[in-house]
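re: ur msg from earlier - yeah i can do the coenzyme A complex, just paste it... oh wait u already did. ok heres what im feeding in:
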Amino acid sequence: MRKKRVASASGGAGPRAGPGAAAGPAGITAMAADAQVPLAAAEGRVPGAGAGAQVSLAAAEAHLWWARPDAFAEAGQLARLRALLTDDERARADRYRLARDRRASLVTRALVRTVLSRYSGVPPARWRFRTNEHGRPEIASPASPLRFNVSHTDGLVVCFVSRGRELGVDAEHLGRDRRWLDLAERFFAPAEARALREVPAAQRRLRFLEYWTLKESYVKARGRGLTLPLSGFWFDLPAGAGDGIRIRFTPVVADDPARWQFTLDCLGTGHVVATAIDSNGVGEVRIAHYEAVAARRGGSLGPAHSAGRMVLDPG
Ligand SMILES: CC(C)(COP(=O)(O)OP(=O)(O)OC[C@H]1O[C@@H](n2cnc3c(N)ncnc32)[C@H](O)[C@@H]1OP(=O)(O)O)[C@@H](O)C(=O)NCCC(=O)NCCS
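and the outut:
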């Protein structure tokens, strides 16, 4: 299954282009940073439901939630997030040496818990998780048809959720600087390494990160970690924004390309995010975007979820 490469604003529901959009290499559309809705504007002023508001999620939909961990800087905010976690999760966060990493870990766990609760009525602190044999976290209890996958990178945490569909997500910061061609020769399929060499040098970083995040999103959707050879599948990236992303497999991986739908987005936060989802049975899965924001200073909440945003740390 193909999915058009789409642009998304930073915030608001649904992939879309918006003010500040700029065409990038290979037709991807990036949102300029100034197109973002400031957090302060989002907090408490959004008309809508209360803190525990439910979000509906049909079988033919998936939701991509994202949060900026650095928005949760105050002690009170962090304490509210910590309260949602298990002792193990708190201990895991505490093991990070840098405050920024501890914060990202707290936000990640709190985001997963709060997001899952939006679909189920289960209190965020009640979820228990297990990992599969390759380390993928899954819901252990209460029993639930929900599936999720998480990615975190410098300045961004994302959580992708479906009702019963296998899915994966990967986010990378666009500011990363690496030896792109060397990495591609080492990790990518020959067709991808070749395509990257042919891209003008100025576009190579973005193109590399597109391949990288797409590959990771597929690996994560399969849940097999790096036991799945990265050179065993490759992506055809379209020349224009209206074309689809296609995956191809070698016999080593031997999957069905028609089963998978992919998206690529450049968020206004300066990140590229790829999703992979099993679209079997519905043709196309509709993907909506939601942002989790910090509660207002002083803890006054106001409406917590509406128009694609929710407050992650209601007091
Ligand atoms: C662990 C891996 C699944 C993703 O790692 P990553 O891209 O570095 O990190 P991300 O932030 O995107 O994802 C980490 C999250 O994926 C989830 N995860 C862990 N193992 C997973 C698996 N087998 N399948 C799916 N998701 C998994 C976890 O939720 C984890 O976060 P958590 O530990 O805080 O819960 C794995 O693919 C990996 O080690 N990749 C290494 C990177 C690499 O070499 N990439 C080459 C791409 S060309």
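cool cool. The chain has a mean pLDDT of 80. ping me if u need the other ligands too
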